[in-house]
Amino acid sequence: MPENIILSLKNKISKQWKIAFYSTIIIGLLTHLFIFTNRLMNHDSLLNIHNTQAKVKSGRFFLGPASGMSSFFDLPWVIGLLSILFLAFAVICIVELFELRKSLSIILVAGIVVTFPSVTSTFSYMFTADGYMFGSFIAILAVLITKKYKKGFIFGSILLSIAIGVYQANLSVFLAFFILWLLREILCFPTKTKEIIQYGFRFLSTTILGLGLYFIIYKISTSLFRVPITDYQGLNKVGSLPVSSIPTRLVQIKEQLIEFFFRGFFSFHGVNLLEVLNVLLFTTIVIVTTYLVIKRQIYKNIANMALMIFLIFCFPFAYYIVYFLSPDTFYHMLMVFSMTTVYLFLIIIYDTVENINPNRFEIASSWASVVLLSIIIFNFAIIANITYFNMEVRYEKSMAHADRVLNRIEQLDDYEEIEDLAIVGRARLYSEFSSITLPNKIPNMIGAIGETFLFDPYHYKTLFETFYGFPIELTSTEHLDEILTTPTFKDMDVWPAQSSIKIIDGTVVVKFAEQ
User: Fold this and answer.
1) pTM here?
2) Three-state SS string across 438-475, please?
3) Where are the domains of the chain?
4) Over the stretch 251-284, which tens digit does the pLDDT of each residue have?
């Protein structure tokens, strides 16, 4: 009977899994409920109210099936719940991978994972968020499977190819978590060098096989559907990075790491709580790592000591591995979920401290870790809601602007003669809040910051048709070029002047700029 199966499964679920699951759900809902219950669009979601997410030419051939679990409609509440569910599964995998025992450790892991800024930034692209969270979960599951079973690299490579097929940045997630696990084995347990190397080769086997399988599926998919490989993020140039560009990439990695962790100390942006907390975080990490090296006398094992240093230096390359795959790659907030491992490292170290007879340093470091990480989680949650606040302001401003434009169009004397639409330039909707105050207070949250989501003519076309019931086609490029040379257009003033909207040869022209 179904009831018996459910009861049997319930009895097999460990206490740690339950804590991981419920903690993620609760913290996730408390942090992101606002965006789950409001439609806060960005420039992409406006165009993806219904979309199959068939991204074969972008190499994301599994994104469609992953996002399709919530239908192909942009349903914030449904997508949000599924996203939190997948993150809860990811946290369970992390708990199992690092064999976490303490309830507080598990709650902190859940908090870091579900409030991390890349998760918040992904929710600004709500229409595809569940697919991306599914991909992150699968990438971490691939690490767990590879580690747990001797031949797990076979199934792990299949999972990894799926994760990369959802989003290429999931390769960084896989690499960062397996490096973190190897580092934990050296620091926290009397693991032999040979065993560490064996596990390292197992993980590398998963990586190589996973990438190989991914590229095979990629080639088959693009050939089968007869679609060209997109030039977005340099996907059409994968594998063509010249050796001479490597030093430039190393500089970019350094700049990106500084931008994320210590931006306020190295730029015109003011120093915020996030940067201060990150300084305290790295200071604590260095202190507790040094303590473990001395306490466990790791420095006496030259091989393990060398491996530890090597693994630490591998983290930046793992975070930004895509930089070395294509010359045209650029990184943004959606691509750095792997950097949760920096924060998780301190939790893992805390979890290894014995509750029985700890010394004074272990007690002090445990308290410092828990308090610091709790504040970081709370700060991440605040950043998320500041981000959503700006998205709400941006949405209201964009809709009000569209109202004004459409109202002015409908008031034209020759309104009935309109055949199509031409938008020239971009409207300037400046505010000190969205352009200065907010960007200085939170990280660069791609998809969520900015004054408006109406960037291009097709944004106006889609908005007018979908939300105002005003279907209209955009004029052709050739016709627009002709309009720009007419005396009528040249005599028009820039928006919001009365003459900024006119009908020229059947085309309603909205002039936001001179060209």
Assistant:
1) 0.93
2) HHHHCCCCCCCCCCCCCCCHHHHHHHHHHHHCCCCEEC
3) 2-378, 389-511
4) 899 999 999 999 989 888 889 999 999 999 999 9
